[in-house]
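Narrative summary of target 7.
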Amino acid sequence: MTEKIIRTKYVNIDARFSNEFPCFPLSEYYVELQEIIHNVKSLSIACIEIPISFFNICDALENNCCKITDIDDQKKQAVIKIKDEYYTKESLIETINKELVYNNLYDLSFSLSSKNKTKISTTNSRYIIDFTVNDQGESSENKNTIGSVLGFNNPKYYIEPDKEKETEKLCNYLNPRYLYLEIRERERKKENKINYAFESNILCSKMSKYIIARITLDYNTFPYGSVLPANIFNGFLISDVRRYKEKIRLEDLEIRLLNEFGYPICFNGFEISFCMALEYEINN
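Modeled conformation, tokenized:
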């Protein structure tokens, strides 16, 4: 009887050399492996490099809009849309106020308290501010709104003259807090995604059962414009070991980077790289 030997192969994946970018500029890639790897028993992530080049306020995250309605004049409505950018809490407040002036809402303003909470005030009119809208002013199911970034818990707020409304939480512009790496197996030169049976220990089934790793972001050490090297030794990476119930042939991969709400990340022209550890079986 032929003895089977288990070996480990490390495979470098650099998204800059992807075969396809189906949702450019979002982080979704189709990668063709340099060689087909047979009899694969398990897959895990050894390390990953994340460019901190994504915006914290942008269309892709659907967290850049709110609708403001004048209660005394229902025809006076404005959808405030913030330009895609990486903002500090100060620059975000400044940009919102500029958009208010641009939309002729001169008596309404946002500010920051000494405790890093957001305050809204008006001097004349009464307003309803709705944080649950998209750029068309239509309701959205997104939980990661600009209101939540500013520190507001509720979807809508009533603002009346000379009564400041302060957020329940601190302004949290450092988002996302973490990312998920999703990997799906594909057949070479075919559109088919392969549904191999495997066991997973990362419980994100409501988002995707194909999530294999979680990456923690540290904006103090790795601020905007830097690259975060995450691995199991520095604590920024937690990787599942995807154990296949049958030995598989690994050909092509479909890869996505998602934030904690399941939205694909846009790296604005920069791309990720990572190293996979594959256990495979050979004859002695």
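The chain has a mean pLDDT of 88.
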